[in-house]
Design goal:
Strand order of the largest sheet: 1-2
Largest sheet: 2 strands, antiparallel
Oligomer: single chain
Number of helices: 9
Shape: elongated
């Protein structure tokens, strides 16, 4: 999915980037101890997932004029305020500036010194004009950002990769389809994916099917 994406965003809280359970609880559900190295990979996968969701949230309302976070809304506000500032600069009486400049110089004992207020104001006007030009020409970058569903599938693949050497595997789809499987019929990895809140199917069979399809995309 290609979206227009601004750079930056809100900081993520630690709870948004961590698995919802401990390594020990995950190992119990998985049916084998999860090494600290594998758990570190899983935690990193959650961080990447959180940032993908943040990217998605940051681009979702870019064109919505009512969304204060959207790029378009913020750009229009900045342009309006800069134009107002430029209009204010242009409205200032230059002759009055010269007079004020001279009087202030005399009052501070610097008869021969000028603060050159007119030139300074023109410099401010030029800088504001340059800023306005940059903002008017700036547009969000166009880049690939996965949907939430795609991001969850990628997270599942990352977790599988971390646990594959520890015995992560999937149920046989044909075998499951021949019966009315319960949660107990799922593999430890399939149960863990549900406990990790990556995906929860309507039925154990649906959950296993989702995982098979998600992992098939890595091959």
């Amino acid at each position: 999915m290609k979206r227009a994406a601004a750079i930056g965003g809100n900081a993520l809280w630690a709870g948004e980037t961590e698995p919802p359970i401990s390594r020990e609880a995950a190992g119990t559900e998985f049916g084998a101890e999860i090494s600290t190295e594998a758990w570190s990979i899983i935690r990193s996968a959650y961080v990447k997932h959180a940032f993908r969701l943040q990217d998605l949230e940051g681009t979702r309302d870019n064109k919505n004029p009512n969304d204060t976070r959207g790029w378009g809304r913020r750009k229009r506000k900045a342009v309006t305020e800069l134009n107002a500032a430029l209009k204010g600069c242009a409205a200032i009486n230059r002759e009055f500036l010269d007079e004020a400049d001279e009087l202030y110089s005399m009052a501070t004992g610097g008869n021969a010194h000028s603060y050159d207020l007119r030139r300074r104001l023109e410099s401010v006007h030029d800088e504001l004009t340059n800023i306005l030009t940059v903002i008017e020409r700036a547009e969000p970058l166009s880049r690939e950002i996965p949907s939430e569903a795609d991001s969850r599938r990628e997270l599942a693949r990352d977790v599988f990769a971390a646990l594959e050497s520890a015995g992560a595997n999937l149920s046989n789809g044909w075998t499951l389809s021949q019966a009315n499987p319960s949660h107990a019929d799922l593999t430890g990895f399939e149960k863990l994916i549900e406990l990790l809140e990556i995906h929860t199917g309507d039925t154990p069979e649906a959950n296993a099917k989702w995982l098979r399809e998600a992992l098939a995309q890595r091959r």
